[in-house]
Amino acid sequence: MFLRRIGQMGRRQSSSILSCYRPLITPIQHPSPNEQSRGFVSEMRKTAFEDRIRRLIRNDIQYELDRSPLTQLVSKFKSFSVDERSGEQWIRLSKKFGDNEEIKLEVTMFQVSAPPAKDGSLTTANDLELYISMVVDVFKDEDSGILEFVCNVWPDSIEIDKVFMRDQDGMTGKPYLGPPFNDLDDELQSSLYDFLESRGINDELAAFLHKCMQHKSKNEYIRWMGNIESFVARKK
């Protein structure tokens, strides 16, 4: 009898101890119908927004192509080689001149100039002028440095803004860049323009660069829109 009670007590203790080690089972939480509905609506809105962006971009691309097709830029202009790289804002031109000169041009895409207003009148879109920034580097040999011109290129002319010498390794610190070009002696200004013109950097080149940049601006704009449309359409 005594042993039977001990056995019963042992069984009760064992069952009590085992109950402490029973794994806790967390009930699975299923989203409510309202939560499912909100998630579905949110996904529909996202898809609708993305579809609208893509449609607007495709319409804009088609509009631009209907106006004029994409144009492949030429690789040469007279004695200059033309290097145009997709996705960049620059066009680079280069040529040899004489026995020991190498000339390199770096040309940016369009910038906008607003002429000073007269008599307090407001500047309108018709008053704005497009110009191109151009850097001209003239090399002779490793020891002579580089003669550099900073220019503004207008549709029918080239305007020198600054001229200075720099090392071929680039500029360090803040070197003296000379006075404003317009402050130079008139005869010296004229001679420096002749220096560029004798190397083919003239009004004809200005007209070519503006035409070239018109095509590049359009090409880059369409490429930019296409990249955005492809990103929006991309799925995980």
Largest sheet, described in full?
A: 8 strands, antiparallel
**Count of DSSP strands:** 8
Rg value: 36 Å
Global mean pLDDT: 81
Determine the N-to-C terminus distance: 73 Å
Given as residue ranges, the uncertain stretches (5+ residues, pLDDT < 50) are 1-21
Residues in helix, %: 40-55%
Q: Could you state the order of secondary-structure elements as H and E?
A: HHEEEEEEEEHH
- Individual helix count: 4
Proportion of residues in β-strands: 15-25%
Based on secondary structure, the structural category is alpha+beta
The outline comes out as elongated
Descriptive overview:
The chain is of the alpha+beta class and 236 residues long. The protein has 4 helices and 8 strands; from the N terminus they run H-H-E-E-E-E-E-E-E-E-H-H. Helix content is 41%, strand content 24%. The longest helix is centred in the N-terminal third of the chain and has 35 residues, at 33-67. It has helices spanning 2-20, 33-67, 186-197, 203-233, and strands at 76-77, 80-84, 90-97, 101-108, 111-113, 129-139, 146-154, 157-166. Strands 1, 2, 3, 4, 5, 6, 7 and 8 form an 8-stranded antiparallel beta sheet that branches.
